[in-house]
Specification:
The structure holds 2 protein chains of 2 kinds.
Chain A (H helix, E strand, L loop, with lengths): L5 H33 L13 H28 L2 H33 L7 H22 L3 H15 L2 H11 L19 H33 L4 H7 L3
Chain B lengths: L2 H6 L4 H42 L1
Chain lengths: ~240, ~55
């Protein structure tokens, strides 16, 4: 596995980041154009529903990033791959960020549609727990000095916490809640206008590209620090 | 649709722009912090490796 050597990963990621960043910017512009100029005003919610184009992609990312983080944690626990620990650690801050965005935009959407910023129902509460899981994960990693012990302990936390993700996703089915059910599913046609759906999907891809770019950039910085005694790092930082 | 109508968002301007504005802000902060970290790591390691060459 050549890609799993930190050095190869560092250079490969360095080539990928600019493309992902450009793709994220272009997709975001297209998505915002579709969302604000093409998609019609909703007949029930008026223009407040346009929050959806960032709220739903952010909520998807918050859950998906956690699962990817848990996946890398398993790889680290089972095969002890150093790079998978770097990736898991690099994903956490961006996952926390998207969780915060999902909660923040949800509050701003909840006020005009439900009349309240917040309710303690299962969808909202489990999403808040997700934020605490991310923050706990980040705090745990920075609290343990020995990198191998930090990797194992945080991987375990990521793994245990991952049971929360399906609970978030299915909460709108399992419990009575103010939050509406999924408007997009694999088994049914989306219950919204095609242009609304298109705007949301394009924004979701923009969030993906953004995430890949920033997570790879964070992983690169981490690799440099971890491999600082290697010859290739000296060449990189001295511009050779 | 004129500009002020667009920004009013049918009376939901505060909620819509509050959502997109804060999102843009936190993403920008993440990118800036990452760029700063990259710079500081490279500077620190450049010093470290220079010392190693001298020693």
């Amino acid at each position: 596995m050549k890609f799993s050597s930190p050095r190869n990963f560092y250079f490969l990621a360095g080539r990928l980041i600019p493309w992902c960043a450009v793709a994220a910017a272009v997709l975001a512009l297209i998505g915002l154009y579709l969302g604000f100029f093409v998609a019609p005003t909703d007949y029930r919610q008026g223009d407040s529903y346009r929050i959806m184009f960032i709220h739903v992609p952010a909520a998807w990312m918050s859950m998906f990033i956690y699962l990817v983080m848990a996946g890398y944690s398993v790889a680290n626990l089972v095969w002890n791959i150093k790079l998978s620990d770097v990736m898991a650690g690099a994903l956490a801050p961006t996952g926390a960020l998207f969780t915060f965005i999902a909660l923040w935009t949800g509050a701003l959407w909840g006020k005009p549609t439900w009349g309240t910023w917040w309710v303690w129902d299962m969808r909202l509460t489990t999403e808040l727990i997700l934020l605490f899981l991310y923050l706990g994960y980040i705090a745990l990693r920075s609290a343990i000095d020995d990198p191998r012990r930090a990797a194992r302990a945080s991987a375990l936390l990521a793994l245990v916490g991952s049971v929360n993700v399906p609970i978030i996703y299915f909460s709108v089915k399992w419990w009575n809640t103010l939050h509406q059910g999924a408007s997009v599913s694999i088994t049914k046609a989306p219950t919204m206008a095609a242009t609304m759906f298109a705007a949301m999907i394009v924004m979701a891809f923009a969030c993906w590209m953004y995430t890949i770019a920033v997570v790879l950039a964070r992983a690169r910085a981490e690799i440099l620090e971890r491999e600082k005694h290697m010859g290739w790092v000296a060449e990189v930082v001295n511009g050779a | 649709m004129n500009m002020s109508e667009f920004f009013a968002m049918g009376g939901y301007g505060l909620y819509v722009w509050g959502s997109y504005g804060v999102t843009a802000l936190v993403l920008a902060i993440e990118v800036i912090m990452l760029l700063q970290r990259k710079k500081s790591v490279q500077r620190r390691l450049a010093r470290l490796t220079a010392e190693r060459v001298q020693a």
